[in-house]
Batch of 3 targets.
Target 1
Amino acid sequence: MEQEQEVTNVSGIVSSNGDVGTDDLLGNLRQLRADAANVFGISKVMEVPGYLGKLAVEYQYINAEVTEEIARSVRRETKNVNGIGTNLLSSLETLIAASKNVLIRKATTDDWVSIDGREHWPESVTRYVNFRDNMKLANLLDYEAGDSRELVLGLYGSEHKVVEANLILSRWLTDKSRTSDEDFLG
């Protein structure tokens, strides 16, 4: 049986002229709403399982329009097979769309650096590496990938890891205040 909670009127929080102070409840809620609406430039670094904390991907915020287009595209692609593979394809496409940069470090105590850092890799790598348009990552890690989907699948190593990464990324897209610890601890 659910307990009833007493609801207090907030009229005492707002001054008579409608102003809200920075220390009051409504002022804090307004600031939280403004912060939540500011999504541009926000990114999340996620370690790739299996690389002992030495390889990660920096993902950027993508809006609902992008994820809806991914859903439509995958539905069209899997229509003739009754939707088989939809979850994996959606996960792959979301990770591809949100990828910003692939990061490396020598030890887990080091800072992340872009995998394209000239001090670490051959002269032929000239810019950041993401999943959308760059097969150089597969070459650097010595595996073959014919397209971006194969690139991501090869990097993560299994379909289940790809889907798990997408679940973590999707949770972050809906709540950008989550930290990596919260993602893995629930």
Note: The first strand starts at residue 43 and ends at 47.
Target 2
Amino acid sequence: MKFIDHIRERYKKRNKLFLSLDVIFSILTFYFALRILFVTIPGLLEPSKSIDTVPLLAFMTLSLGLIYLIRVIEMLVTGKRTYFALTLGVTILALGLATIEFYWLF
């Protein structure tokens, strides 16, 4: 029950728009992570089979970067700057990595 109470507290404290965007991009990240897992397992079991997970990895990294970008924007809008520099650094790292992956992809 502590976990559900923690979720309710976060729901009450956060802006609903930022929370909904955070949930959407979190679900997308989780979806791409599961897709990568299900694509790579058959490739590991049969070494002769070729697998290409770069597009999935690029989209997963992009959605992860967008999650942190939403959190940075929320921190700027609400004025809550706890761990702002760390979150901004992770955002730049994730979006930069996604840019490099998309550059390799295309």
Note: DSSP finds four helices and no strands in the chain.
Target 3
Amino acid sequence: MYMFRRMFTIVILSTFLCTAKPLPKYIYYVASPLVERSEWYCQREMGKYELGKNTGFCRTYQDAVGIPAGASYCYAGQYWCYEQASRELGIQNPLPRTGIANVIFDLAKLRGEKGKKIQRHDFVIWRVPKGWEGHIERVKKVLGGGWVETYAFNVSVGNREGSAIKKRNIFYPLGRKAFRGLVGVQYEK
């Protein structure tokens, strides 16, 4: 299984790199202190476990974006971290208040400014092909070759669900979800 996965990765990466298409990345501007402070909240939230079926500690995130208990909270967790930093710093939260992971990508794409490479604080977005469902994680560290360390909410942590720092290759599918693109969080001009 390990060799199959490794070969699959090599084929996918070489296919992606040989197509010479630019990485789908769009820029989303955020105030500098907000980006840094929201990361502090992300760090603090890592390592928590659900009670099961998207309930427990994650209810705070779901409430922050107005989604019901039991709903997926991968984006809601990211939003909550920015919201806490916004309140603390007295800066308006620029992220859209929604429970849908792909909305921030759609908004950044509408603004039309493209980025070029994976950077710390970027959001990585995956989506079910031809669907609206997706997943989002925030880049903690870029490792190279498509590999990143992320702050992730609503993910498997051993045999449980919760929040954790994950190592991902952005080109690997997450279950049924395929890599859609990046939202580059840049400091406001």
Note: The helical segments are 2-18, 32-45, 59-65, 74-89, 103-111.
